[in-house]
């Protein structure tokens, strides 16, 4: 390789000399230069442990740097090579630390010698090359560093030009960050450059006044929240926290508050400030709300982060406790942490703990709240995300806390909509165990309602029968039971896959039958003759046939028989009790 260096240096010098003398038609010499650099790069990347190859790359870059730094070099030559060379030298960023430094110096040289507006376009184009394979962090870092310098050199239309660059920067950062491990030194290099971009935008804001300042600060806020999300994804908390501290320090400058970001209100405000086309633009910053939620959860996990943001988290938690609408908004925002598989379990654990904090104690509930429909879809999504934590978390304490948070979120939903939410969760779930849990919650809610409305006070009971304002005791409950015992796709339930859900559905049906018959009511329609016959013929008898057949099939296999017994015995007991109850009710109708 040392021989190759001795041969290539004269060749590089020859190309550079030719380039310096080709003012009228420099393009062919530029192509020769980029081809030469590519060959040196290939040699270095093909054998990363070869020190001679790395030295060749370093010396080639150094010679190029000296070339563009020459005060005698014609400006026309500089302009012509500025279109090709930033991309060519950026590829060397992944070869070694010193190659990265020289590559950044070369790009800095172009920024100081060429039009900032032209360099902005050139660097943005270099960040989005057609060849995906060169988008490693070493390649990206010099370009990001260059953009941070270009922003400072812009003379006018700062907001408009930065606005164009930010989505390109974010797209590349996201693509690279998801592929990096925490221990990879490129992780720190990449986000160091991302922070340089943020610092440059802040420095530009300081120089501006009026509306342009407001818009650029809003754009910086969006960028900070987006990077907050990216630095948290697929990475250990210990690796991410130093960057989270830096990002949090931008909050006062950008007008970001914990209450505003955790409810999502400030995100909507700064999105509108950025411009009229915020919907299209925000599609390029798709993780901003993730970052907004994460910023508060990071604060919940670390007092140091709270201090960096200059916030009072205790007052934010108190406000959420005392204001149901804002609490709903915050609950809806937390789906952005609990749902993504790219976020670490430790952050999900802190999000669950935060939920427990803001729903703890005697918090105000308003059953007839006109605003809830606006938040129903987001709260439903959060409940689905909490379900995933309950099902998949390996930490027993986290699963327990998630279930407690799940119940508290449900309790915070107005009674009139609570059953609809539960029904939708059951319909959307493909986990038999989760469906069983949800049906048990329905039964518990019905039990509470029946104790209130069907209590021992005869006056209250008579009044309730005259004006039954029940929400859960309706025919919809039977529809839930039927969905499990007689699945919409046809046929009886499958065993053992559906065993948990079937047992819970049978228990719910038994509870309804006993409560309606002893209370001499029929709110659900369960004890009407037609519904009793339908349940008997379409739910219970087909289920009994299946259970009996499975028991008979496994009778002679000891191992399978024991497993089948453990699964089917509880179902048989409740099933036969339901059959008895229905038969008794049908006899009363016939009497």
From TrEMBL:
UniProt-recorded Gene Ontology molecular function terms: ubiquitin-protein transferase inhibitor activity
Coiled coil: none
UniProt record, GO biological process: callus formation
Gene Ontology CC terms: cytoplasm; nucleus
InterPro entries: Glomulin/ALF4 (IPR019516), YAP-bd/ALF4/Glomulin (IPR013877)
PANTHER family: GLOMULIN
Name of the protein in its database record: PREDICTED: aberrant
Species this chain originates from: Prunus dulcis
């Amino acid at each position: 390789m040392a021989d190759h260096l001795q041969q290539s240096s004269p060749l590089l010098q020859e190309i550079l000399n030719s380039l310096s003398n080709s003012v009228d038609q420099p393009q062919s010499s530029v192509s020769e230069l980029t081809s030469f650099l590519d060959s040196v790069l290939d040699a270095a990347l093909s054998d990363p442990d070869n020190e001679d190859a790395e030295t060749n790359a370093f010396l080639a870059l150094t010679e190029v740097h000296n070339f563009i730094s020459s005060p005698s070099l014609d400006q026309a030559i500089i302009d012509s090579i500025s279109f090709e060379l930033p991309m060519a030298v950026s590829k060397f960023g992944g070869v070694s630390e010193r190659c990265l430094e020289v590559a950044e110096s070369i790009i800095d040289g172009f920024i100081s010698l060429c039009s900032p507006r032209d360099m902005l376009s050139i660097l943005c184009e270099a960040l989005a090359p057609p060849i995906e394979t060169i988008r490693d962090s070493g390649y990206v870092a010099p370009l990001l560093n260059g953009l941070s310098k270009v922003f400072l050199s812009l003379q006018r239309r700062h907001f408009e030009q930065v606005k164009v660059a930010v989505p390109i920067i974010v797209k590349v950062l996201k693509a690279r960050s998801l592929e990096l491990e925490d221990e990879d030194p490129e992780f720190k290099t990449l986000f160091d450059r991302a922070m340089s971009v943020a610092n440059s935008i802040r420095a530009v804001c300081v120089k501006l006044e009026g509306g342009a300042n407001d818009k650029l600060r809003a754009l910086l806020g969006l960028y900070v929240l987006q990077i907050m999300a990216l630095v948290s994804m697929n990475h250990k908390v210990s690796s991410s926290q130093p960057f989270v501290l830096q990002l949090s320090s931008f909050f006062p400058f950008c007008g970001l508050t914990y209450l505003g970001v955790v409810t999502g209100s400030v995100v909507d405000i700064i999105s509108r400030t950025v411009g009229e086309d915020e919907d299209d633009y925000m599609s390029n910053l798709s993780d901003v709300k993730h970052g907004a939620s994460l910023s508060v959860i990071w604060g919940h996990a670390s007092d140091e982060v709270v201090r960096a943001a200059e916030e009072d988290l205790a007052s934010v938690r108190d406000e959420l406790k005392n204001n149901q609408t804002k609490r709903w908004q915050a609950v809806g925002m937390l789906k952005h942490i609990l749902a993504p598989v790219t976020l670490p379990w430790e952050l999900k654990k802190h999000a669950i703990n935060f939920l427990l904090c803001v729903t703890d104690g005697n918090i105000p509930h308003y059953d007839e709240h006109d605003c809830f429909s606006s938040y129903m879809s987001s709260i439903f999504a959060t409940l689905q995300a909490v379900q995933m934590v309950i099902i998949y978390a390996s930490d027993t304490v986290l699963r327990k806390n998630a279930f407690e948070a799940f119940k508290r979120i449900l309790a915070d939903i107005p009674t009139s909509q609570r059953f609809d939410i539960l029904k939708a969760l059951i319909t959307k779930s493909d986990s038999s165990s989760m469906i069983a849990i949800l049906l048990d919650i329905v039964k518990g809610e019905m039990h509470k309602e029946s104790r209130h409305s069907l209590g021992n006070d005869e006056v209250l009971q008579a009044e309730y029968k005259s004006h039954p304002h029940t929400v859960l005791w309706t025919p919809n409950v039977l529809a839930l039971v039927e969905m499990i015992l007689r699945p919409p796709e046809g046929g009886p339930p499958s065993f053992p896959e559906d065993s948990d859900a079937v047992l819970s559905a049978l228990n719910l049906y038994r509870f309804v039958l006993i409560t309606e018959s002893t209370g001499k009511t029929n709110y659900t329609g369960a004890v009407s003759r037609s519904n009793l016959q339908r349940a008997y013929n379409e739910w219970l008898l087909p289920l009994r046939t299946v259970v009996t057949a499975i028991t008979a099939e496994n009778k002679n296999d000891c191992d399978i028989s024991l497993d089948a017994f453990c699964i089917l015995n509880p179902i048989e007991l409740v099933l036969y009790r339901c059959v008895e109850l229905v038969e008794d009710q049908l006899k009363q109708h016939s009497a």
